[in-house]
Amino acid sequence: MNRMLASLLAGALSTVAAADVIDDWNQLFLDGVRQSGGVYGPLAPVAPGPVSRNAAMMFTAMHDALNAVVKRYKTYAPMVPCPLETDATAAVAQAAHDVLVVAFPAVADAAGALLKAHLSSIPDGPGKESGIWLGTACANGLHALRADDGSEFDPGYVPGADPGDWQPTPPEFLEAWGPGWSAVTTWSIASGSQFTPSGPAGFTSMSSFLASAYYALQYEDAREYGDLFSTVRTADQTEIALFWANDRDGTFKPPGHLLDITQTVANDQGLEVVDKLRLFALVAIGMADAGIAAWDAKYSTEIDLWRPITGIRAGDLDGNPETVGDPKWIPLADDPFNPVHTPPFPAWVSGHATFGAVHAAVMRNFFGTDEISFTITSDDTPGVWRTYDRFSDAALENGRSRIYLGVHWQVDADDGYQVGTAVGDWVSAFELGLLGDLDGDGVVGPKDLGLLLAAFGQSGATDLNDDGVTDAGDLGILLANWR
User: Angle of helix 88-103 relative to helix 48-70, nearest 10 degrees?
Assistant: First the structure.
C-alpha cells in the first residue's frame, strides 16, 4: 500500500521540488517577521503570540492543501474536495501565499513573486488551475476558522504596585503586551489554563514566594549570571544568551528560530514532502498553543511576576532578608553596544522556554527519539553555529539563556519547560494523525477496516474525506494508507 501512496504523490506533485516549496515559504515567513518589526503595541505583529498564530495559519493551510490531494494525514480544517488531477505543489504554494500576504503585508510583493515562480514551472491545465483553487480554499478556510479567535482583543492592563508585581522596565518602559492573549481560542489543547502550574514552583501567593529561601536562590542566580558585568558568566554562556535572544527587531523571533531549526532537521533527516509538511504544521500548532498557555500563566494567575531588572533593584523591599538590593544592577540585555532589552510582559512563565519545550516535544514524538544531532545558527549571532545532540538539550539551553541575558528567573524557564512539554505531547497525540487510523493505534489495519465497514453509509469519524458519508471513497483512502 505504501507503493500506492508513492504513486499518488508522484502524480500529484509537479516538477517543482515540493520540499523546496516548503523551505521557500518558511524562509519568506521568517522574512515577514524580520521586516514587520516595531515596538510592542497592543496588536504587535512580531510579538510571540501573533507570530506563532500566523505560523500555525500558514502551515496548517499548506498541510491541508497537500493532504486534500494525497489524503495521507488528517487535515486540521475539514477536507476540501478536489479533482484527482489537482496539482499539489500549486495548492501548497497558493495556500502559503494567501495566508502570508495577510499575516505580513511587508512581504506581499515577495510572496507574489515567489508564487509566480512556483506556478510558472507547472504546466498549464486543469491540474494547475484546480491546485490554485484548492490552495485559496484552504487558506480561506483557515482564515474563517480563526476569524473570531480573540487574537485582536486587548483588554488593557494596570500593573500592580506591590513587591513582586510586574512593572514596565527600562529603558523603554513599554506597556504590557498580551494581557488578553490567554483568552485566544486554542488550536488543540482544551484551554490556555490546561497545563498552567499553580504558581512559580508551586507557590500560590506572591508574598510566600518572595519570602522563601527558594526565591532567594533564584534571586542570587539571576543577579550573578544575568549581570552585564558578571564575573561568573562564561564566554560560552554569554554566547548562549545572545544566540537565543530573538527579541530584537529585524530578527526571526522565538517561533521563527524554531521554524528554522525544524527546516534544518527535516532536511537533515530527508523527510518526504508529506511528512515534512506535517512536521511543520505540528510544530506550528504546538507553538500557537504554547503562546496561549504561557500567557495564561503570565496574566491569568495570582502572580504576575516582576523581571530581574525590577526585582534586583528593589531587593531590599521584597520582604526576604537574604536578598540584597542593587539599585544599579544592569542586565546583559541592556548592553549599550548590543542591546536586546527586557520584553514588556511578566516573567513567569518564560515564553522562550515554553516555545522551546513544545518544539522539542513535537520533534521527539515525530521522530520517535530525543537523540538527534543538529547544527544551527541564529539571527542574533550571525556566523555562530551551535550543535546539539538532543532536542531537549536545545530547549533547556534556550530556557537557561534567559537567565544569562538577565531577563528571567530560573523558575520561569523550569515551569515554562513543563508547560511546553505538556502542550507538545498533547498536540503530537491528537493532531494530524494518519488518515484511516480510526482506533488511534498509529497504524491503519484490520481493526480500522472493520470500523469503517460497520459505519458504511453513515457520517462521523469514518468519513475520511469529509464529504458527508462513509462510502467507497473513504474505503479507498483507508486502503491506500494501510500499513
Answer: 160
